[in-house]
Amino acid sequence: MSRYRDVFRTPEFTPLFLTGAAHTAAQTVVGLGLATLVFRATGSPLLSALALFGPSLAQLVGATTLLSAADRLPPRAAISGIALFFALGTAVLAVPGLPTWAVFAVLLAEGLAASLGGGVRHGLLNEILARQDFLLGRSVTNMAVGACQIGGFAAGGLLIALFSPRGTVLVGAGLYLTAALLARLGLGARPPRAAGRASVGETWRTNRRLLSSPARRRAYLALWIPNGLIVGCESLFVPYDPERAGLLFACAAFGMLAGDTAVGRFVPARLRARIRFPLQALLAAPFLVFALDPALPSVLLAVTVSASGYAASLLHQERLMSLVPEELAGHALGLHTSGMLALQGVSAALAGTLAQYTSPRTGMVLLALASLTVTYSLARAEGRAQGPTSVSPSGSRPSPRRDRRRTA
After folding, report:
1. pTM > 0.70
2. Residue 323 contacts by C-beta under 8 Å, 6 or more apart in sequence?
3. 89, 266, 271, 325: which is deepest, by most CB within 10 A?
4. How far apart are CA 240 and CA 234, in angstroms?
């Protein structure tokens, strides 16, 4: 079994890892600062949730228009250019007196760029690592997300307390600039993974091809909907407890870090297919305790345990990649990322609306119940599709390469 240090010995993995870590830290700091800024200005749970996760809605537009470019651009230039665009856009968000509509216009543009950036980064990771090391590599990058979110939310809360939400947003702009420099100086020059011209038509054709297989559709739905609904729960942390929102986000990041570490490094291959859906159910179940209006220690424990269930995404991604032709890896992973983030944005909007008319606590419980229902339905559908046929440890049919060619 490969180990984490083996992954870091792979050429170009470390600079890609550091670039992603800086990008995540920036996104975390900016999100908390901007959500606080919007909540203080408007008093609206809906607008606060959209400031934090609303840019993800633009991912849906990007996934249907720009995604074919993910495999047709030189990775280094695309990653560094997108990070630089984020740095400039975030600096604009810190301009005093910027109208709320202008804030969301900038966030929309950043969301469109992010839909392309996710596909480029994940496609490059798939290109750098051997296929058998993909889950371990994704585990490491997810662990970096958890660690950077812990540090980012803690630092963001401190920066807001010591300075201001606007100053916190400026710090995030500096972190995006750091990510751009890391990508430009650390990654090697590689040609695009696919030939041809990117276009909206090509994006649609490849999306249809990827979604033509029932097995791939189930994998995508499992990656998009249950997780997105729980992110909707988390989008209500600021209106639920404005003073401790940073602590709640840090606990969620710690839980995600612990879950990714356990699944990526210690769960044997033979168990991965069996625990995919039970682990995803763990993502939603702890939020049901909010119905009891629990004390702070119970809230922190529930949020931490819940976030460990995000590790199910590693297993669903492994399943998806066993069904995807290698030349479409970047597009396939970009579609996963864009769809996931789009559903997060939709869920944040839904959560904010529920909280507006009921309460943040009620909104969390309702979304958690919906997540559990979807997870159960997908698990039943997967079981019916597989029937008595045996599956491989990754959850795919035997001879996955032959199956990929047949279902592509």
Report:
1. no
2. 213, 215, 216, 219, 396, 400, 403, 404, 407
3. 89
4. 10
